[in-house]
Amino acid sequence: MTFNATTVAAAAAHAAQTTTQQLYANIDLTKLSWLEQMWAAWYIWIDNPIIATGLMSFLLHEFVYFGRSIPWIIIDSIPYFRQWKLQPNKVPTAQEQWECTKMVLFSHFTIELPAIWLFHPMAENFGMNTWQVPFPSWTTMVPQIAIFFVFEDMFHYFAHQALHYGPLYKHIHKIHHKYSAPFGLAAEYAHPAEVFILGTGTIAGPVLYCWYTRNLHIFTVYIWITLRLFQAIDAHSGYDFPWSLQHIIPFWSGAEHHDFHHMAFTNNFSTSFRWCDRIFGTDNKYREYRARISAQKAAMKNKSKSERDEAERKLIAEIEAEGQRAEAIAEGIMPASKTVKAQ
What we know:
By secondary structure, this protein is mainly alpha-helical. It has one domain (48-331). It has 13 helices and no strands. The chain has helices at residues 5-21, 34-46, 49-76, 94-115, 119-125, 138-163, 166-171, 192-213, 218-235, 254-264, 275-279, 284-299, 305-331. The longest helix is centred in the N-terminal third of the chain and has 28 residues, at 49-76. It is elongated and about 75 Å long. InterPro entries: Fatty_acid_hydroxylase, Sterol_Desaturase_Related.
């Protein structure tokens, strides 16, 4: 008997088709939840696990990212909300929002979309469940997601600091710092290399966990990615509401924490939590700024609103000017001085 490439390819295709048709042969789908039934129906309908996982991963990212960004676009267009905007004199224009959207879409379709088809083979190679139902219990998923949050925050802290190093900043990270007053859509406004570097922290946690435990479902990963996208977009929103999460969970970073990073260039390199910045002392300028804000509000308590706003504007302008000098030092445009040190 002789074999050729055509025969082997045909046999492989037939095996894949048979496997797809038999994925749920021994599972009573009627006993599953509605969501689990929809999950199985998706894989049966696509009839190819690799395509089903890749397409679902891409669509999830697009729907969550832009779906979460739209409310912030609406808020930016309503003057009433300016009272909670961290940099109230810098509201993104429609043109800026559109330019940012085009850059984000370019990154999604040229970097993420081609690579996402490798996700299913990689996931299964590390022992991750993909098409399988039922889903794991909440008692299983919640600790896993908590681990992913901590891992990503630490990874991002050190990788983000590295991106502030001269050449890496000048040629990669500078794009993300285009907006000194960020807005929701700008969360993924970045150089493709930065998308890959910082995105590694989001994916590496689940992959390493799965490799070590052999106990992870991609549904858990999707919940994690959804929460991570919410965190990133909200941190770039530019708003600090009384009900924002950082006022409920003290160690949560939030927009109030990350907005300072964009304004001052230095400090606050972490994502979800404040721990790393506090431990390594990279929040000193931020804490000084917050102390000055509090002292200024107390001193101007009996002043008019216009006077308070003007004082706040001047303080923000001062911090931003310091940030511009620190950025110039990072790029090598300006020599380092004793008064401005990049953290």
